[in-house]
Amino acid sequence: MKKKVTTLGQFIIEKQADFPFSKGELSRLLRDIGIAAKIVNREVNKAGLVDILGEVGEVNVQGENVKKLDVFADEAFISALSSGGECCAIASEEQEEIVSIENLVSRDAKYVVAIDPLDGSSNIDVNVSIGTIFAIYRRTSLSGCGTNEDFLQKGTELVAAGYIVYGSSTMLVYTTGRGVNGFTLDPSIGEFCLSHPNMTFPEGGNMYSINQGNFVHFPNGVKEYIKWAQEDDKATNRPYSLRYIGSLVADFHRNLIKGGVFIYPPTAAAPKGKLRLLYEANPLAFIAEQAGGKASNGFKRILEIQPETIHQRTPLFIGSREMVEKTEDKMLKYMATEVK
Ligand code: AHG
Ligand code: MN
Ligand code: MN
User: The whole model's pTM is what?
Assistant: First the structure.
């Protein structure tokens, strides 16, 4: 017997019934993100065929080279969110300032969106999985088209968050705070179909993901964790396997399905690590917690960090709960001497 197929659109509408006073704005916002994801996916898939590869020659606000696909994805999401009318401002990794959406339908919209339009840009040219990460907050400003303060909310205030992984297949995974659901794009019908309902981290994960090439710069707690992960101990599934793609979304997604921990630690040179709080750490932390996992900066819950600037960075320890807790134990041991 064939299983019933639930598309992302149907699923969003069904879930809206859980919120009897909802006017459907969040549902429409999620739908708009799904549409932009399909447009970006189309472009990602033909990246090897057309002249979309290579660097544009600009440097983004983080001082990194911007690839053409980063620009394309940024424009695709901003355009979908601007025309949808449910979002009044966007904070994007590719834009130094927030983008206020000044058209008449959007200016009084309820939500703001923080986004990493193209995550894992160093993997674009080499046909390796890349992604998009988004975070949806309720605006706090009372009128107009969004302010910086609308974005400077703790992750505990997130209304919804998700990611798209453009991999061997394309998946959209999101949460509105009631569990995590994953949808796989069926290219033959152009729809995201529910393929991974109620995603949770499995028990007994044995993968760790970290750019171990930087070992010499890691804090002692992380060095000790790595040494511990490499010890031989059958009872705890060690030695662990090291898996590092270099696209946060793809590394996180694998760990969510297989069980594992992703670490981007602080170093003396970069005491805040590399990853961004608003549109990388927070949305994935919300998903991790909703899937029974954990996300920390080594000492503190990611979702409780008060953001001060929109492009702020944070160290990130995220994944299976017990594995993240082990990394925190090691960080705590050296707390007095470590960068915080
Ligand atoms: P982005 O492409 O959005 O700038 O993000 C890249 C990030 C993240 O995806 C990945 O986990 C990390 O950079 C990899 O950094 P290293 O190359 O330093 O390991
Ligand atoms: Mn990124
Ligand atoms: Mn990016």
Answer: 0.94
